Structure formats: C-alpha cells, structure tokens
Amino acid sequence: MKTADVFTASLPPLPLPEEMRLWDAEAMALGLPEVLLMENAGRAAFEVLRLHVPDISKQRALIFMGGGNNGGDAACLARRLLDAGTRVLVAHTKPLGHYKGAAARHIRLAGAVGAPFVPLRRGSLDKVFGAKGLGAEDFSIVVDGLAGSGLEGELRQPLRGIVESLNSLSGRFVLALDIPSGLSGVTGRPCPVAVRADATVSFAAAKPGLVLPWARTWTGRMHVRDIGIPACVRSRAPCAARLLDAGCLAHLPEIPEGAHKSVFGHVLVIGGIPRYSGAAHLAARAALRAGAGLVSVASPAGAEGRIKDGLPEIMALPLGEPGGGAWPTTLPEDLSVLLRRCDALVIGPGMGRTGEARVFLAAALALPGRPPAVIDADALALLAGCGEATRHVTGDDVITPHPGEAAALLCTTAAEIQADRFAALGALCRLLPCVVVLKGAGCLTGRAGEAALISPYDVPQLAVGGSGDVLAGCIGALLSRTRLSAGANSGLSLACAGMGVTLHALAGLECAVSWPARGNGASDIADALPRVWAKARRGNGGNAVSRNVASHDVDFA
Questions:
Q1: Structure pTM?
Q2: Which of 133, 507, 525, 557 has its CA 20 to 30 A from that of 33?
C-alpha cells in the first residue's frame, strides 16, 4: 500500500447510500444475518439514547416506525426500551403484515414482549394519541425511524406531513435513527423538510451529508456506532468520501533529533505585486508558522519591503527593474535556480492578473525540475484563461479555489458551485490532474480517482481577507517537509492538502478563543498554527478536538 493510501485509509469512511447498501449485502453474503445487524443497530440506538436520557426507565417514548429497514431498527429499539422500563408507543406507517424479512421478525418480537403498536393514517398524529388516551405532553422522548439514508428525491406525503407533525412536538428529546428523516445523506440538506433531532445515531459509519456543518441544524449531536460490518467488507468496498478531521494530524511529520533548517524544507512564494504585497506576506508568514525551515518570496522589484513587513526571516528575491512593479517576460536565471532548489512552490497570492503575470505563471509552471506547487488566488484566475499554463499542472500540484475561482475555472457561477459542491469538486478533478481544495464551509479536498475528503468545520474566524493566502502557505510548508522526508515522488500532495485544511480550520478555532465574535485578522490565523500543531503532537489535537467543536460534533465509538 502506498503511503498516500495509508493516509486516506486512516480517515473515517463516509459511505454514500448505495455504498452502505453494498456493505450490508457483502456482510450478509459472508453469513452475517440481517436480523443480527438490525439487532446491533437497535442496541446501539438504545445506548446512545441512554447517554442523553440517563433516567430512561422513568420516561415515555413515542417511536415513529417507517416502512423500510429503519422501521425494523425502531422496533428493535422499542423492545429494548421496554426491557429498561420505558413506556413506549410505536406508530407505524404501513400495515404490520406488510413488513418483510428482518424488519418483520423484529416487529413480531417487539409485539410478543408487549410493545403497543398504532397505525399512522394520512400523516395525522391525532388518532395516534386518541387510540391510547394519550396526548403529546405525555411523551418525553420521540424516536425518528421513518426514513433511512437511502431516501431519493423529495420526501413525499404522507411522510412529509408526519415529519412536520413530529417537528411540532416541542420540548421532547428527539433521537434520529441513522439519519433524520427527510435529510439528504449526500448534501446534508432537507428534501424539502427533515426531522429536527437533538441527537442522531448513524449506523456503521456517518454518511457524507451528516458531517457537513449545516446538517447540524437537523442532526443535533452526531453519534457513529458500529453494528458489526467486518473490516474486510469495508476494505473491499471503499467509500467515495472520507471524514477529514483532526485525526488526520497524526500523520504530521515528526521533528527529528539534531534537526537543521534544511530538514524542514524551503518554500518559495511567487506573488506580491506592490498593490497586493500583503497577500504574499501572509502566505510566507503561514509557511514559517507551519514549520518551513526557509521561506523566500519572489516578487516584482519594489514590493520586497512590504512583503517582509517586520519578518526579517522572509528572504526576498526582487525581479525586474527597480520600482518597475511588473513581472518580467522571461524567468530570470536566479529565479530558475531557486525554483529547482526549493522544496515547494506557492504561486498566486497578490500576483495580479495582467498579461505579463499570465506569461510568467506559465513559464514558472513549465520549468523542468520545479517542485510541487500550491496554485492559489490570482494564479487561479490566470489559469482560467490560459490553456498553456494548465498543460503544466501536475498530479503533485494543489489548487485552492474558493467558489468564485472554481466558477471561473469551470465557466459557471459561484451559485452553481455552491448548489452542488460535490459535483463541482468532481468537475475540477476532471479538468486538472492535481489535488483540488474547494474552499468554504465544509471544505472538500480530492483528486481524480481518489476519495473526496470532507472537512466538517464552519469557522467564522476564517471568513476574513487573506485567510486563503494563509492556507496556501500552510499547505506549501507541509509539501516541503513531506517531500524531504518521504521522497520527491511520494504522491503525498493529497495528504498535505488535507492536513493543511485541518490545521487551518483548527487555527481558526484557536482564534475563536480570543475573538469569539470574530475580529481577528489573517495574520492571527497564521500565528495560531504552531499552537495547533503542538496540541496535535501532544495528542490533544486528535479526535477529541475535532469531534467536539462548535462547528460540528461527531462522537465515534
């Protein structure tokens, strides 16, 4: 297995609905009966519910049971709640005699031990309560087992009406089984309505949509629980998506004993025309803060003083005539030498979008023997209009577009990008052979033929000018260090981009301590990087940090 594959395989899988169905089928083909998998799901749901409601024996639970396997999970949970002393009422959406397979067996078992069932007719809850002489106020727990993660298209009646009625039951603890009914397991958006749960227990693995930050409105606290799918099944049927959280920082390169500056790599930033010198400064600052041993900036002559901006560690290479402020039309020899000698290139921050910049970009990317490049900001806009430059983008390079830059590359609009970010990521990966980081809340990282990495974070402190330049510099530093430790052809650009995205997000969360209502600058994000790195190396930046944050809270057990 390649080192890059080890990184991706270490991240929690996020199966799409069809991939989850394949997992179930493969497990059953090995001899694991479906009724056992459903029993395990019911037990997992019971344990999660007891975490949130410790005195469960004193409660009354209203359980909504849909027509599919999710209904079987609900029936199994009803039986376990009865055993714990909870008073239950199971409201089912189709006649009990119409259930098949494992779901039917668990329904019969729940009925045999005394679980009361009442039909849901035309989405009305009035007859449910009237049948047993109960009112909504009699129930302190509501369980959503209506529709699982395999929902396709919009939620139709009568389920839509049932979901709306369920959401009207305020003041109850709501647990969703596998996924809140009506929520897309792919996009994390309601279709067009979804159950608003206080907690969700996702079976076997979280689904891609559940970890996206906006899904928390419906999922509440996320719990992922094993139900016995064998590891060999997971490995034979890999997922198209993986969760990119702070657990990935276990792969950060170690600090060797007796280290010197060359061990940590040399990052070259190309950018920073006089008008936009701050962008190049922020990229260089972030590269230093992320641990690069040496950082140089090549820019038009006259900008170097502002690019340093109080950081004498940033080495400057002025290009062209003094005070000219423009890019030369050919690569100067000293820059060509530096390009071949450095370990990573960050190109684009503050580069400008002139014709000279476009020619210069193409020449830099075409230079034989250049290192992997992080292509960001103005360089992305130049790529969008320059077929010559795109031909020199390699599989080891990384592009970091925000939705507007992605739209320019794909000749569409930012609104279209945001409407289907997964499709946009796929289109960008088909357009260019490199690693793609599609920035924004729920940042997506991928490369053609590899799993998409989904970041669960939405950090308001990152929404500030220059934040993207900091991310580019951070990824550049990781590329330089990893390239030195793992070899020039290690193929680790995807891992470096993923770790960079995560360090950047956690640095934003670090800033939230001092600036909870925002107000930080991009330089504050860069300066927080060493603290985040240190926590990760001490073991404080692992799963507990990433899965217990305000942006999204996922509990894996």
A1: 0.92
A2: 557
